[in-house]
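Help!! Second protein's tokens look totally different from the first
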Amino acid sequence: MELDNIEKLIEKYFEAATTVAEEETLKEYFSQESVAPHLEQYAPMFQYFASAKKERFTKQVPLTSEVTKVKKNRYGWYSAAAAVAICAGLYFNQPTAIEDEYSPEEIAAAQEALALLGDNFNKGTHQFSHLNEFEKNTTRFIQKN
């Protein structure tokens, strides 16, 4: 009867359906010297689990390392370099008037293109108001049910 029970427990174990108590029963069975011949193939696995459970990590784990300190030091230099780059960019990039760079015809053409773009954009956003109204009504209908 015990051998039949062990075989059922092995099947449950490989299906990941055993309880902790059933796994302990399997460990006790396979820790014995007399194991059924057709189940001997599972004995090393359970013996390994028992020995692996006793293993402990004994080395000291450093909480801070030299690499961490070097990285923290680099971040200070990176932020200083970024501040210098921003200041240099602001200093050397003095704003110029658009009239100095473009002709009046180019400015007029750009304004006309932007006005056309704005009109088309407003037409598109007007369609979204219909979608918002539809969403509001469907939400109200769903919440009533």
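Here's the second one for comparison:
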Amino acid sequence: MVAVELKQGSFRPEYKGQMELYLRWLAKYESEDAEGQPLGIILCAGASTRQIELLELDAAGIHVAEYLTVLPPQDVLERKLQDAISAARLRFETKPVTDTL
């Protein structure tokens, strides 16, 4: 189960508490026994990576993503795409392999 919240403007620390409340409610009243813990996605127009790291959102099952309000120039868009690909590769390469059987 996934809770998605769309926020106007940049990420604010209090959004973590709001999402934690939503996730606890979903876990208690909406989740079935076979389901894992619900995940939360907060969509914001801007976010500080440092702030998000300090709040340890990943540990709470909360993820923050930025949405674009205006399409940036092509070189900026390409750079953001390359940064995202590099970050994903790094996470994939450093993630321990677990046996799924």
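Reply: Different proteins will give different token patterns, so don't panic. Residues 27 and 37 are 6 Å apart (CA to CA).
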